[in-house]
Amino acid sequence: MKRKMRLYSYLSNILVICLYATQLSSGYFTAYEAQENDKNCFCELRGSINDCSCDVDTVDHFNNIKIYPRLKSLLVKNYFRFYKVNLNRKCPFWPQDSKCAIRFCQVENCEEQNIPKGLIEPTKHHHSNGEPLGAAYKYTKEAQEPACSDADDFNSILGFLDTSISDQAHKEFELWAKHDEAEEDFCIMDDNQEDAQYVDLLINPERYTGYKGDSAHRVWKSIYLENCFDTQNQSNSLPDYIAHLDLRNLCLEQRAFYRIISGLHTSINIHLCAKYLLSESKDFLDPQGIWGPNINEFKRRFSPETTNDEGPHWLRNLYFIYLVELRALAKAAPYFKKEEYYTGIVEEDEETKMAIKDLLSVIESFPSHFDEHALFSSSREGIKFKREFKEKFRNISEIMDCVGCDKCKVWGKLQTQGLGTALKILYSEKLNQATVSGLWQKPNVEGDHIFRLTRPEIVALFNAFGRLSNSIFEMENFRKYLR
């Protein structure tokens, strides 16, 4: 009897321990589920970001805690929400026969009365090369005062010298100056063209519009096949021509170009998955539909099973392009701190300047910035690669005119221009010259910038970086869903 009691007691204790252990592990099948979750959570990237000195976890924490919240509040400011772009340029590479007719492809018009006057008023003041001084001039003391007699005397003295220079020569000087500046551009600029219009980015968010099929496929196929350095793989199959390739056989410059384009493509795809049209609303009062994350679409685009094991490589390339643009902002931080971000709304303009300085101070504190000096050595081969980089990237910026969905085109052109601006900053001899000469330490350099960015370039760069930051933030959300 005692023996049976001891056995009963022993079995009871084991049962209690098992039940307790089951509670701690949240269920009998926990071990199996954990294995499945590890397998399914392919976006749980670990380790170093190839060709960079930091790892994924470092970027995740830095972006999600420090950068993303600041950018989210900054990019709703008037200076950054209105982007000027030409949506009427014809595709220069093939007949544009597939205009998207889906209502979510259309760009909502921006009423002129909603655009801050400081963004659309023409300025009367110009640099010596004929370029506008910019809206920041309106804040200066000189802009508020009538011209004084000393200035008139000074102009009359110079007038004698100017008489020996013909109008035609002046025009040629302006063309030379513009040519010199264009030499540093990685993008084709279209904001000054007659058909250019302002788009309110807040009422035209980047999200899935339903634009897909042959037209969208042809755009990306053209970008990868005709502009990436590797041309051996000419397959028409999407997973083939954007495959990871054997990057070890490419030099650093070629590898970097491919990873930048792949990272941009990845970022755009994450945005589409994060803001997917889950159901179309039938309510006349709320016609926008229901938008949210589509887990199955994310898995389809990035899981190893559906991408021939390439998806995790594409996700890692997102971090690479993020570090490239992060470094550009850090390098040009002294320049950006001197910008006025003028819209004519004085209180908000001051808030924007303070927010920019706060963001830049955080960006400058990042410990493992991308090293742009690793690319494009001073050798003949390095100079050749730099020229090819520009040519290919300018070509890609023109391919964006072939996108058949207007809303997709806005965000495609913006992110391409933002990336082009980042590359311009990283490899601008004029910016290096200004930094070495100590120009940024001078109290006022507005009237004679050695290095200048236009407002559309600044707006595109910060918004493009905001898109990358948002993608990394959304990656964390997808990890939670997949777990």
Structural notes for this entry:
There is one protein chain. The chain is mainly α and 483 residues long. The protein has one domain. The protein contains 19 helices and four strands. It has helices spanning 2-24, 30-40, 56-74, 78-81, 117-120, 141-144, 149-162, 167-182, 214-227, 238-241, 252-274, 295-302, 311-331, 333-338, 346-364, 380-399, 406-426, 429-436, 455-482, and strands at 82-85, 197-200, 276-279, 290-292. The chain has a two-stranded antiparallel sheet. 31% of the residues are buried. InterPro entries: Ero1, ERO1-like_sf. One of its GO terms (biological process) is protein folding in endoplasmic reticulum. Its main location: endoplasmic reticulum.
Which tags fit this structure?
mainly alpha; 483 residues; globular; two-stranded antiparallel sheet; two-stranded antiparallel ribbon
Mean pLDDT figure: 76
Report the major sheet: 2 strands, antiparallel
Helix content: 55-70%
Order of helices and strands: HHHHEHHHHEHHHEEHHHHHHHH
Low-confidence stretches: 14-38, 123-163, 175-180, 231-242
- Terminus-to-terminus distance: 50 Å
- Write down the overall geometry: globular
State the secondary-structure class.
mainly alpha
Active site: 405 (nucleophile), 408
GO molecular function, one term: protein-disulfide reductase activity
Subunit structure: May function both as a monomer and a homodimer.
Protein name: Ero1-like protein
